[in-house]
Amino acid sequence: MTIDKAIILSAGKGSRLLPLTESRPKCLIELSGRTLLEWQLDALAANGIEDVTIVTGFRADLVDEVAETRNGVRTLFNPFYHVADNLGSVWMARERFDRDTLLLNGDTLVSPELVARVLAEASAPISVTVDEKPEYDADDMKVLRRDGRLLRIGKTLAADQCNAESIGLLAFRGAGRQIFIEAVEEIMHTPAGTASWYLKVIDSLADKNEIGTVSIVGQEWAEVDFPADVDAARALTARWARRF
Q1: What is the pTM for the complete model shown?
Q2: What sections of the chain are H helices per DSSP?
């Protein structure tokens, strides 16, 4: 079944991008005439995905204004954004996983072609989109995979034992949605829940469940997390602006 729904996690302020994020969330940073969020929505819409839930937090009112200009796009406020990590945002959106769904980090810039590849190749109940590079650093969400299956994922994994990185885009099909949400609820019932990333849940599921990976090597994407990332993202979107 074709995935026609997405959830974008955009609750955080993006403190590492100050002063750009002093009065707006980083999903609203301008990149070549559009905000990061608008680039995401356009890439999804180009693939038939217009049913989008944006989980908001810091300056939710500004994100609401963008959502109001798009048919099918709605927001969901996370009142715990200032004390919880992104697992809290997933928990807030747990009822939105009512059919096959993409889950996208609010700071991941993706092209329509990349989204198309994920939709075409994400066949496992849970699929993690990955890229590859010669070396991985401490801030990378590192992945160990074998024969297309994810074995481990996390920032603290030894770089020399990993062979990919997560870009912050996942696909959930069929039973994968329930497996994921049940694990999210279990961790959220522990003291560590609000301080956890949702990919910690994926790592915990990898031993007993088939977590697939989709390689997007050769596709264009960017993570906007540090000031230098903004310049790179603007250069990338300047090229995209001539195409879509």
Answers
A1: 0.96
A2: 36-45, 60-67, 86-92, 112-121, 175-188, 198-205, 227-240
CB 190 within 8 A of CB 168: no
pLDDT digits (tens, 9 = 90+) for 41-61: 999 999 999 999 999 999 999
Domains of the chain, CATH where assigned: 5-240 (3.90.550.10)
Q: Which residues contact 129 (CB under 8 A, 6 or more apart)?
A: 114, 118, 122, 166, 167, 168, 169, 170, 171, 213, 214, 216
pLDDT at 168 over 90: yes
Kindly report whether the peptide bond that precedes residue 227 is cis, defined as omega within 30 degrees of 0. Answer: no
Q: Which residue has the tokens 């608008």?
A: 38
End-to-end CA distance of the chain: 26
The residues, ordered by sequence, that sit 6+ positions from 106 with a Cβ below 8 Å of its Cβ are 8, 9, 10, 11, 12, 25, 26, 27, 36, 37, 40, 54
pLDDT tens digit sequence for 143-158: 999 999 999 999 999 9
